[in-house]
Write a structure and sequence with these properties.
With 107 residues, this protein is mainly alpha-helical. The chain has 4 helices and no strands. It has helices spanning 2-22, 27-32, 40-67, 70-99.
C-alpha cells in the first residue's frame, strides 16, 4: 500500500508529461484553459512544474517509506503530500497573476 502513493503520483506526472510531448494542449491547459489565458510556452511551464511536483512527491514517498517507520510515512502521506501540492498551487497562482494579459481599460 505504501508504493501506491508513488505509483499514483508518477502516473499523474507521466500523464502531464505525455500531454506536453504528444498532444496539442497540455493537461494543465485542458484543465484550466477555460479560466486562464496564457501562451503555449506558459502552459508548458506550468505543466512542467506539475510534472516535477508529482515526480518529487513520488520520490519523497519512496525515501520516507524506506527510511522511516510507518507512522512517519502516514504523516507524510496525509500532510506532506498535501502541503507540497498547496505550495505548488500558491507559487503557480502568483506566477499566473504576473503573466495574465493586462487590461488596458482600467478594469
Amino acid at each position: 500500500i505504501q508504493w501506491k502513493v508513488t505509483v499514483v503520483n508518477w502516473t499523474v506526472a507521466a500523464a502531464c508529461l505525455g500531454s506536453q510531448l504528444l498532444g496539442e494542449k497540455t493537461l494543465t491547459e485542458r484543465t484550466m484553459g477555460h479560466a486562464v489565458q496564457l501562451s503555449p510556452s506558459q502552459w508548458r511551464y506550468l505543466n512542467t512544474s506539475w510534472v516535477a511536483t508529482f515526480a518529487i512527491i513520488g520520490a519523497i514517498n519512496l525515501f520516507v517509506m524506506h527510511n522511516y517507520d510507518q507512522a512517519t510515512w502516514v504523516l507524510f502521506k496525509v500532510w506532506g503530500q498535501i502541503g507540497l501540492v498547496i505550495i505548488t498551487v500558491i507559487v503557480q497562482t502568483g506566477w499566473i497573476s504576473k503573466h495574465l494579459p493586462q487590461d488596458n481599460n482600467g478594469g
